[in-house]
Write a structure and sequence with these properties.
Keywords: Membrane, Transmembrane, Transmembrane helix. It comes from Novosphingobium marinum. This is Zinc transporter ZupT. This protein is mostly helical. The chain is built from eight helices and no strands. It has one domain. Helix 1 packs parallel to helix 5, helix 3 packs across helix 7 and helix 5 runs antiparallel to helix 6. The radius of gyration is 18 Å and the shape is globular. It starts with a helix and ends with a helix.
Length: 251
Amino acid sequence: MGPESILATGLMAAAFSAIHLLAGTLSVLHRVPRNRWLSFAGGIAVAYIFLHVLPELSAHQTTFAELLGLDPVAAESLVYGIALLGLAVFYGVERMAKTSRERSRMRGEGDRLENGPLWIHVASFSVINLLIGYLLLHREETGAWSLGLYFVAMALHFLTSDFGMRQDHPQAYDRTGRWIIAAAVFGGWLLGVFVELHEVAIGLVFAFVAGGVVLNVLKEELPEERKSRFLPFFGGTALYAVLVIAERTIA
């Protein structure tokens, strides 16, 4: 990788970190019903899943078949199984957080996470941020357009996930959690600068991240209490779809 690529992706990693550190200052995002910009961001993240994540999983399926000597059906089961594992792991973390908040309310301690589930929640997001930072430099699709679309989708995904994390445990998140999560995404980029995993390992990492992103996007947009806005959500999906089609047409 050239110095220009390292510089560009380093700036993107720094921007990802800044989103976590500064998103809490954007008071306009913390309205209920849900702010239209958060629904717009969620729409882009959903479009990213269908137009980039799923096709890229298919590309990794081919890599698994070639490098591991698997037949196409086994390779397909492996890559989508890892994505399903990522979704299941993050679903389990979210259920644990919800149960913890319910226990706190029953004890009259307010709508807060207990210490153990709180730090498991932060650790889980740190892991996915580390992997997203790493994939800035090591993705199946290459090129400036692809990198730019990845950056936009992940930046907006971070914005919506940060909003959800801050609602779950505002004081602990602002005091400590956001710093850990911000450091994780930049640390993932640093890891990518110095360490290049085998193609199979990168495929496994991407599939696991894909499952986590799918779960996090859906949990932020679908629950009734979020009161998502349809038109901004649809606008985000349509805009991102147009950009992806333009990228592939020009290429």
